[in-house]
Fold these 2 entries.
Entry 1:
Amino acid sequence: MVKQNGEIAVEMKHITKKFGNLAANNDINLKIYKGQVHCLLGENGAGKSTLMNVLTGLYKADCGEIEINGQPANIHSPKDAIGYGIGMVHQHFRLVKPLTVLENIILGSPKVGFWLNNKAAREEIMELTDRYDLHIDLDAKVESLSVGEQQRTEIIKQMYRGANIMILDEPTAVLTPEEAEKLFVFLRQTASAGKTIIFISHKLREIMSVGDKVTIMRKGQIVGAKDVKDTSVEDLAGLMIEGTISEVKKQSVEKDGAEVLRLTDIYTLHDDSGNVNLENINLCLNEGEICGIAGVSGNGQRELAEVVSGLRFCDKGEIIVGQKVMTNQCTRKFIQAGVSHIPEDRLGTGLAAGLSIIENGILKEYKSKPISVHGLINYKVAKKYTEEIIEQYKVKAENLNRPISALSGGNLQRMIIGREINGDPKILVAAQPTRGIDIAGVKMVHSMIFDQKAKGVAVLFISEDLDEIMEVCDTLAVMYQGHLSQKVRPSETTIEEIGLRMGGALC
Amino acid sequence: MLNEVIENSKAPQKNSFSQRLPFSIEKRQFPTTGAVIMWSIIGVVLALIIGAIFLLATGRDPIEIYTLTFSKVFTTPYGLASAANKATPLMLGAAGVMVAAKAGLWNVGVEGQFLVGAVAASGVALLNLNVPSFVIILLMLVAGFLGGALVAFICALPKAYLKVNEIITTLLFNYIVVLFVAYLVHGPMKGAGNNVPQSAVFAENSWLPQIGSTGIHLGFIIAIIMVILFGWLMRKSTFGFEMRVVGNNPKAAKYTGISIIRNILLVMIISGGLAGIGGMMEVSGVVHRMQSGIFTNFTLTAFAVAWLARLNTAGVLVVSYLLAGLLVGAYVMQIVGMPSAMVNVLEGLIIMLIVAFDIVTVYRIKWKRGNSK
C-alpha cells in the first residue's frame, strides 16, 4: 500500500510565521511526496492550520520558501495557490447554500467566463465524478444535502479547479463514521491516481488507517515525521503531547471534602445546531477539588459546562448540587445554588457588550440587596460593587459608565472572572478561562482559581491545554465525542493514556 | 523589525494624498454629546437647504416660506398649542418605540396599538357613564393602555415562543387594526343620524380638560410625565435592566437566568400600552370622537422621533415637539400656497441626513500644526 518515495509535490523550507510574539510556525521543514496521503497531526493550536494557510496563500510567511513540484513557487494569494494546483477543503465549507451543486462547483472557477456554459461544465464534472466515484446529484440545492455530501461538493469543486494537491482540514470532524469510511476510500483511490493529499487531523486511528506519512506538530514546530506503517497509535499519541508537560506537579493529598456536585447518567439529545450529544456522563466533585476536563474542543465540553451551570436541559439523568436535586431547574436556581460560570465565549455569552461596565459588573447580582431595593437599582451601590471587582482583579477601566466593549480581551476576562468569583460560589465552572490571554494573565487566572480552591470551592476546569490541566488540577477526565472518561488523579495516569483518550483510541 | 519594514513599505502609498491635507481624521471610541448635537443641527440645516432648492425650482421663495412657517408655528400661541397637542400622542408612540428598542425589538405596530387604544377609550366614553369626569378619564386611560397592550401582546406571542420576527407581526397587524377600526366607525360605533363614518361626539365629561386658556389639553402634561417615568424605569429598575440585557445580548440574558420570553411579552405590553394611551389622548383631547385616520403615518413619525432622539428620554420630548411643529407647519404651508407633500419631503430629508451623519459623529478632525513635515 505504501509507495516508494517518488517525486516531491510540495516542499516547505524554513517556514516561520509569527503573530505578535507567538510563533505559530517556527522554522518548519516539510516534504510531501506525490501520490501519497500525508497527515498532519497535532493538537488545536499546534500550527497545522497556520502552515496550510501559508501554503494556500491566506497568510504570508515571515520567512521561508515553498517549492511545488521542484520549482520555487510564489504564493501570495489563494488565487496563486489555485494556479499551482493547490486546493483546500476547509472545515467550515465555503458553499452558497441556496445554489445547486453544479452552480457551486463552477462558481468562481477560472474556466467560467462571462457566459455560463453549464452544459460543458456539466460534462466535465460528470466525467470527474465518474472517474473518482464521487456520485452526487448536480442539480440538488446544497442546503438540502447532508454534511457528507456538502463535503463531497467541496472536493469536486477543488478537483474541477484542477487541484492536484488537496488539503483537507479535519475533514471527519463533521462526518458520521460511515461517511468518514467512504471518504477514506476515496482519498486512497485519489492518491493512487497520482494526486497528493494533505490530511489534517488529531484523530489517531484515522491517520493510521488512511495515511502514508505523518508529520507531528506541537507548539509551532515539527516534533516528528514517520511512515505510518512504522508507527503505532501509542507512538503518535506520545509525540503529539509528550514534552509539552514541563513537570507534573505532585498534588498534596488532600482530605476529601464534602461532595458538592454529582452528575448521574446525563444524556442530552441533538438539537440540530451542531451540538455534541452528551452520553452517559457521570461525574462528582468535592469541595476544594479542581477537576480538569481535557480533550480537543468541540467534543462536548461546552455542553457539559452548560448542563452544570443550568443553561442546557438534559434529557436523561440527574444533577445534584450540594444536597439538592437540580435536574432541569431554571438557570437562576443554579446561580442561587452557588454555581458560577466563566463561559468560553466571554463577550458573546458572559457580558452584554453594549451595556456599561457597571451594569455588567452587577449582571449576576442586580436583584439582590443592597444593589437593588424594591425593584430599583441603586447605581451608587452598583458602582461601588463594580469598583471593588475592578480593583481586586486589576481590571484596567477608566470610565465605568462606558460600554464594556471598550475593554481589552484580557481585561474582559479579568472582569468576568472577578464577577463570577465575587459572588462566593460553591461551584465554579471555568471554560477555557486562559484562552487568548498572555502569560501574566494566565498566572493570574490560575492564582485566582487556587484561591477559590483554598476557600473550598469545587472547580470544573475545562481546557484544551494539557500542560495547564496537569499543572492546575487535582483530578482529570477526558472528553471525546460526548463521552467522559473516568476521573483520575494525574499521578494515576500517563500522558500516553490521556493522548489516546483525546484521540478516541481508548474508550 | 519585520513589522516595521511592512509598515514602512505601506506608508508612502497610503499617505501620499492625506499627508497633503491640512488636517487628519481620527476615530473616537464613542461619540461625544456635543458632536451628536452639532451633527444633528448640521443635518437639519442641510435638509432645509436641499428643501430650498426644491422650493426655488417650483418658483417659490424658500426664505419667506421658512420664516413664515417658523413664525406661525413657534411664535403664535395657537401654533405653540397645536404643536403641543400634536406632540402628545407622538411622544407616547415614540416612547413605545424606544422602550421596545431597548429590549432589542422593533415595534412597527405602534399605529395599530394607537388606534385600538383610541377605540377602547372611545368605547368607555360612549357608555356615557354617570360618574365624575376624572373617573371617566381615568377609565379611558386604563382602557387605552389595555387596548394598545393587547394588540402588542398578541404580536409578541409568536416572537416570544416561535421566534417569528416581530417586525412582520406588528406591521401586518396594523392592517388588521386599520380595517377593524374602519368597520367599527362605519357600523357599530357610527353616531346616530350620522352619514359620515365616525362616532357621535363624546359627552363633555370625557374630554381631557384644557390647561387654563392655553388651548393645550391636560394629556400633554400626563404624556410628558409618563414618558419620563417609563424612561426612568427602563434605566433604574431591575425589570428595565433585565429588558436591556435581553435587548443587548440574549445569550447573556439566558446565562444570567433572565427569562427572555417573559421580558419580550412584558416590554411589548408596555410599548403597546404607551401607544394606546396616545390614542386615548388624541380622541379625548383633540378629536372628541372616534374616526379613522386620526393620525396618518403614526408609526413612521414615532420612529422618526425615537431615532432622532437616539432612544433618549429627554430627546424624545424635545424632538416630538419639534416634529409636531413641523407637522402643524404643513397646514400653515398649505395656507401660504405650498403643497403639504413638501413637508413630507423636508421631514424625510431631515431624518435621512441625521441618520447618515450618525456615522461621522465618532470621527474627529484634527488640524495639523505648521511644523509637521
Entry 2:
Amino acid sequence: MIKQRLCALVFVCLFGLGSCQSVQPWQRGTLAKPEMRLEVDKLGSQLYSQVYFSKEASSGGIEVAGAGCGCN
Amino acid sequence: MIKARPSPLLALSTAALSLPVFSASQPAEIELSIKTSVYKEGDIPAHLFLSGSNERYDIDIHQFYLLGPIARNWSLALSGSREIMSGASPWGTVRGIDGKPALIMSGATIRESRTEVSIGVNRYTNHASFGLAITRSTENDYEAHAIVLSGEWDFNNKLSTLTLGLSYSSDDIEPVDAALFGRVQKENKHSRSFSIGWTQVLNKTSLLQSGVSVTKHDGYLTDPYKLRDSRPDERLEWALSLRYRKFFENRNGALHLDCRYYQDDFGIQSYTLQTAWYQNLSEGIQLVPSLRYYSQREADFYLSVDDFSLPLSVNQSSDYRLSTYGAYTFGLKGIVSHNNWSVSISIDRYISSDRYALADANFKHPALLDFSLASLGFDIRF
C-alpha cells in the first residue's frame, strides 16, 4: 500500500517535471507575484502549523520540526 | 495581435523580483510582520462529560517576524510569539450509562502562557543559501530548545531548487501538581528531523514543490496530565508533501493546492488536502477563500475508554488526538496592500467528527473539537 502511494507521488512529480517548460528571466513576472509564493504569509503559516500540530496527530511535510511545546 | 517584448531593464527587474519567490536569494529590504489572533474552542456538550469543567481553551496569540540584510550576502531573522491560554482539558474517558465514552475534564480552569523566540542567520552565494536558526520555547511546565540547519541550491537557471533541512530539539517537562496527582516529576524527550524538497517551475504561470520529512522522537512521549496514558518511548514519523501554485491570467487569481500523506509507527496514518484561491479584486485588494480537509486513522494503542485494569507497562491512550476522525477548516481572508505595507484580516472555522474520517471509527470521541480562529496582521517593507 505504501509502495503504491509512493509510486503515485513519484508519478505526479515526474509528470510535473516532464511538463516543464523553459521560462526565461523576463517571463517570470507572474511567478514573482506575492500570491504565487509557496508561503505567502510567514506568521500565518507558523500559526496554522502550531494549531494543527497541537490539535492533530500529524506534522511535518516540507520542513523539519522545530521546538516542541507542552500542547502535544 | 503582437505582444511587445519587455525592455531589457524591465526584464532584469522582473527577474530580480522573481528570484526570492522560491530560490535562495538575499532579501533586499527589511520585512516586519506582526499578527494578533484569537483562538476559541467550542465547549463540551453537557451530556458528554461526567466531571470537571466543560469550558475548553481560549488562546490569545501575538506574533512578530523581522527579516533583513545585515551584511553583504548575509541576512538575519528574528521571530517571537506569546500565547496566553485558559480553559479546561480532557483528563480521560470512562464508559457512560449509554455505553459510550464519557469525558472526565480537568476541574479548575487552567491559566498558562507560552513564549517562543527564534533567531536565525542565512548566508547567500550565487546559487545557494545556508541557514542556521535556534529556537527556545518556554511554558511554566515545559521548556524546549531547537536548532535548525538548512540549505537551498538552485539549478537549471534557477528554475529548480533543492532544499535540505536538519533539526534537533531537546524538550523538558515538569508537570504541575506532580506530587498531588502522582504525575512524573521531570522527564525529557529528544527529536531529530530531516527534510528534503524539490521546487520546480513548470511554466510561466505554475510551479510545484515536493518534499519528504522524517522525524524521530525518543524519550517521554506520554501525556502526564491524563489519568491513564502510556505511550511508547520512541516514535518515527514520515510525511510526503506536494505544493502546487498556478496563476490564471483570465481570472486574475492564483490557485494553491497542497496535499500531504503522513504515517508513523504509532500506527497513525493521515491525509491532508488544502486549497486556497487568491483573487485579486481591485488595485491592492485580495480575497482568499480556503478549504482544508484532514483525515487520520487511530493509533494502535488507542482506547476509546481508559482501561485501569491494564498494567502501566501496557501502552494505552484515550487522547482524542490519537483517535480516528476527520476535520474540515473553512477560511476567508482579506488583504489590503498599498505601496510597501499590507493589512490582512482572516477568520477560520474548524469542525471535526468521526463521520468525516476516511476510516471507520468505533465510537465518536466526546472531546473531538471545533474551534474558531480570527487574525489581524500587518506587514511592512522598508
